[in-house]
Amino acid sequence: MKNILIIDTDPSIDDAIAFLMAIARHDLFDKVIINTTAGNSTITNVTNNALKILELVEARHIIVNRGASAPLVKAHILADHVYGKMGLDGLDLPNPSMTASLQSSYDCLIDTVAQNPPGTVTLCCLAPLTNVAIAIKKRPDIIHKIKKIIIMGGAFLEAGNITPAAEFNIYVDPEAAQIVFTSFPEVVCIPLDCTHKAIITKDILERFRSVSQPLGNTLYILLKYAKAYDTKKYNFGGAPLHDPTVIAYLIDKNIFSTKKVSVKVDARNGLTRGATIVDKYNNKKYQNNVLLVDGIDDSRYFDVVFECLDRYPLNQNHHNDECSPTYHE
Length: 329
Known about the structure:
- The protein is of the alpha/beta class.
- The chain is 35% helix and 17% strand.
- The protein has 12 helices and 11 strands.
- The strands form 2 sheets. It has a 9-stranded mixed sheet, sandwiched between helices. Strands 7-8 form a two-stranded antiparallel sheet.
- β1, α1 and β2 (31-36) form a beta-alpha-beta unit.
- The longest helix is centred in the C-terminal third of the chain and has 19 residues, at 215-233.
């Protein structure tokens, strides 16, 4: 049976490492599709960032679809204070030769799920959940055909990273998050409670230089730039590497600890907008809708990250045929 990954992403460097990991493991994942959405930067920037990273590793067989340019309701909030104006600042990567398809991210999600047997598509969400919410609103019947949905988002006992109450991905589009959390029978959620334990120390940062070139130095420079903000902001002895936790979870769940809980998303205006509210103890009163990933073996996590990245350069004799691209001239 096929194992198809749709990675919904707003590429900064964390996202890039995540989908590079997935692409490297073509022994586990038959197809990887990149769907972009406005998040860390504008939809134009994040889509171009995805293409630049794929070009860097010559992964031109990977299809990139351009998605939502704004949240469902409110104006788009950027993270350029962290990742720079382009979302991938710190190093000028060459412009890619490949382009995004003419199909939207949400239509690709719908078509991929509809056209494949149930239980073959896993949805990995590393960005605001706008694309997924749009797809659900258009075709709610796809929900029960999706094998699993895993999101990097939310903050429970840990404080938020964009407001005291909210994590960035949820805060940018809480209306979309609310749709997702109430639609799926179970969402696997990897929040800041977990990712804030996955810290890039100076030693780990240096380890990126050991990855094959030019990828290794590129990742090192981009990480050093992007993680300077969080290193200064937090007293963690480094900065978190958030999004690759989603791919690491698919590769080795034993790295993580989990518990089933009930979660609601606050989409109201005010101090708690974007908060993910967890009910840890009254689970007989509320339906558990989330498998909360709350712990991580950080040493094993980074081993998995590097085990994937060390596979580059790849043998490119494999191809994606889902959502066949129509290239811009």
